[in-house]
Amino acid sequence: MLPSKASRRPLSKQDARRSFIELTRQASMGHTSAPTTGGGWLSIDTPLHEKSTDNDDDDGDDLGSRARSHDPPSLGMRAKSNVRIGSLDLYAAFAVFGYYLVTFETLVVSFNTVLATSAYYYIDTHTDAVFNYNLSWTLVTFAIVSPIIMQTQQAYNRRENALLLVAETKALMLNVYVAHHQWIAPAKQACVPTTLLTRTRLLVRGIMYDLCELVSLPNVTRGRHRFTSTGVRESQAQQAQQQTLRSRLAVGLEQLHGQVRDLKCHGLSEGEASRLYQYLWMIHSRVLSLINIKMYRTPQATRSFTKVLVHILPFFYGPYYVNVASGDGSSNRTNFAFALAFAILTSLMMIGILNAQEALEDPFSGDGLDVVHMESMFDRLEEDMAAMNDGAI
């Protein structure tokens, strides 16, 4: 007997999603942490249309209603939305601008700029000395701007690598935990003691949170931690804590190897055990890579040279700002207020970009807006394991 037209037709998006929600809900029944009613597990299904019938006319009506629901908004609605979103984005941009400028170094650079520009302008206008020259900015481009751009790109790449490593570590840890539920034949699954599953879950959580604590420690790799007595003491005080966390991570990973050995005694095949050992090696490799990203940064010498040059630049480019104010004495001139404002703006742009780059140097610190939020990412891992616990899968 040939299958009916309805059975040959693939499920619609709404029906497929509804079926998946029902399937996962049934798999999670009986587990207290998995919402199954009310505003929880099924609430995400509310935007879906009612299940369509098998007749073609109803399908046509459903397609028509979906097409109408995706009609583009009117011009007035788009304009209103653009104004609202644009205003919020502009406000956020100024907020971020101020966030990275409110530093002690910004105050120092601004003071140097005002002092140097005012002094050169006074000397040029009230003495016989001439400090009025249209200097080239080529040196600034090569000595300051280019290194800052390069360092920012390197720091951003390290952050992206850290995000990838964290995602891979979470996925591998989750698969190690899933192996306790799924990789053993159903006939032997009942023989796996609950304590083995609980211990594995505890080890996974402990490794993740110790790793989170280790990479979230205050940064002790700046220049002050090598060339100042206060910085050296700060670095030495953290060594013991780092060593304790590293040792616990090593022991935890070793214990996970023991868990695989115990699984073999309860029915895990040699091939699957070999795959789990490979997963554990990959986890260890990624943990060490994350620690290295924490401990090593972009070249210290380049960062120090750039910072020093940004601070002393106003004392060498003061004559340029005097030229902006006075021109050649008769034309192409503005005034001192504009020249001073332009000088301050130039210094703020450079120190702001430098501050943003330094905030990216440690992708795990809580100082920047673009850091990796390790604890929240690992909290999600615990939620995933909870959804799989007690036979949820």
From TrEMBL:
Bias (Polar residues): 25-36
Keywords: Membrane, Transmembrane, Transmembrane helix
Superkingdom per UniProt: Eukaryota
Positions of transmembrane segments: 88-111, 131-150, 304-322, 334-354
Chaperone recorded as keyword: no
Region (Disordered) location: 22-76
Keyword Membrane (UniProt): yes
PANTHER family per record: BESTROPHIN HOMOLOG (PTHR36970:SF1), UNNAMED PRODUCT (PTHR36970)
Listed name of the protein: Uncharacterized protein
Species lineage: Eukaryota, Sar, Stramenopiles, Oomycota, Saprolegniomycetes
